[in-house]
Amino acid sequence: MNITINIESSTPLFTQLMDQIKQVILADALKPGDALPSIRQLANDLDLNNKTVAKAYRLLERDSIIQAKGYRGTFIHPHAKANCSVDLNEWVTQKLTETVSSLRSSGATDSEIRIAFGNVMHNRSS
Amino acid sequence: MPDNIIFYIVFLSQIILISYYYPHQVLNQMRTVIANYPPENYPKLYPKPVEYYKGGQRIYRVINLAIVAMGAILIVAIAIWDYTSTNKVSDAIPFAYWVIQILPILIMELLGFTNFRLMRNTNTKATRYAELNPRRLFDFISPAMFGLAIFMYVACILFFYNIHQFQFHPSNDTFVIFVALTLMNSLFAGIIFRNLTGKKSNPHQAHADRMRQIETSIKSLFVMSIVASIFLITVEGMQELGLNFHVASLMSFYLQLTIVIGLGSMLRKIRIEDINFDVYK
Predict the structure, then answer these.
(1) ipTM of this model?
(2) CB B207 within 8 A of CB A3
(3) Most exposed among B22, B73, B239, B269, judged by the fewest C-beta atoms under 10 Å?
(4) Does the beta carbon of A66 lie under 8 angstroms from any beta carbon of chain B?
């Protein structure tokens, strides 16, 4: 099974890579336990920077879609197919929408929310 | 007398095989590609005008013919001077001549790399493809072959160590052989690693063609490593048995073998009719 990357697309390369790997898993072309190419191999085959592929792999590992097993390589996670359907971006957007709505209903202004959000993201105390 | 006849036969074979037979095969392949896959239909295959490639073929042919002529003169010169003056043929002669013989092959390789670089520079496609299969060493060679190469490397060093009274210091042969074999095998390991995980030099090459090329290259390098160890053991053994006279013939035979294993296996296993030329349309 092969993957295709469009370097002129507005979608970031690491996102395209993640989406393609997820599609391959959802299509059952890769099964749990199957090995993936090394970061170096995939980066060289696609003529991308190693860091781009490493970022995609790191995020897929965080989402329990793949698992790194040290020097043995990277493999498809046993629950990869189920985890592929979980959209973390959608979940984050939903949670944030709920939080912002709750803050607004409590009387907080948008600028107060924005400043507080910035402080939290940068680990600053108000 | 039969001793030098054996050398002349083996050396003649070296001249014909490396400077006539294989160049002839290479040129035939190049002519077939240009005739069957012309630039009008396969523009990506020719980043330079087709006359450039035809000119390169003519130069390659002339250089090889000049090397054949040089080889013929060398045989006469050996018969007149080298053999009669020392009563044995110097084993440096087939090696020095081999270095000259492989120059056109190396130049062709370099021109090939330049051609691939031009292909990469002119490749404006925004989409890139990759297979999601890992490429591992044992996908291309058997563990037995890998084990044999390691065994022969160790056996060769131990053989020299034993022959040279278990001495191991920079001034003795065991050390020199250890360094030379280790460097050679490290170079081979580097090439294999680059083949497995490195960038593909030809940006348009089909996946199946690339796999076949990697397999042929890796197998050739492993066989070359094994043959080098066997050759060194044989030469040292012959010198121990006082058969020094045959070393030049053996050297010539070994040098021919390296070309048969390298260039020969590429020509045998990567056949034009199996290559996917549609990717160059």
Answers:
(1) 0.81
(2) no
(3) B73
(4) no
Tens of pLDDT, residue by residue over A62-101, are: 999 999 998 899 999 999 998 888 777 788 899 999 999 9
Most confident of A85-94, A117-126, B86-95, B171-180: B171-180
What residue ranges define each of the domains in chain A, with the CATH number in brackets? 13-83 (1.10.10.10), 88-122 (no CATH)
| Residues of chain A contacting residue B198, judged by C-beta atoms under 8 Å apart | 44
Q: Is A38 on the interface with B (CB under 8 A)?
A: yes
Give residue B118's identity as a one-letter amino acid code: L
| pLDDT value of residue B169 | 83
Torsion angle, CA of B220/B226/B228/B230, rounded to 10 degrees?
A: -140
pLDDT of residue B1: 52
Alpha-carbon separation of residue A120 from A91, A105, A107, A110, B258 (angstroms): 19, 20, 19, 15, 66
C-beta atoms of B134 and A37 within 8 A: yes
Beta bridge partners, B130, equal A3
Percent of chain A with pLDDT strictly greater than 90: 82
Closest by Cα among B18, B8, B20, B48 to B264: B18
Mean pLDDT for B201-225 is: 94
Q: Is the pLDDT of residue B85 over 70?
A: no
Strand partners, B127: A6
Contact list, A7 vs chain B (CB under 8 Å) = 126-128
Task: Give A40's contacts in chain B (Cβ within 8 Å).
Answer: 197
| Cβ-defined contact of B128 to A36 (cutoff 8 Å) | no
Q: What is the pLDDT of residue B239?
A: 86
**Strand A74-76 to strand A35-36: parallel, antiparallel, or no bridges (unpaired)?**
antiparallel
User: Which of A71-75, B1-5, B272-276 shows the lowest mean pLDDT across its residues?
Assistant: B1-5
Query: Which pLDDT score, from 0 to 100, does residue B165 have?
Result: 83
The CA distance from B222 to B85, in Å, is 40
Residues of chain B with C-beta less than 8 angstroms from the C-beta of A14: none
Residue in A2, A7, A9 nearest the CB of B130: A2
Q: Closest approach of chain A CAs to the CA of B200, in angstroms?
A: 7
Question: Is the Cβ–Cβ distance between A7 and B126 less than 8 Å?
Answer: yes
- Residue pair B129/B279 in contact by the 8 Å Cβ criterion: no
Burial A38-56 (b: 16+ CB within 10 A, else e): bbbbbbbbbebeeebbebb
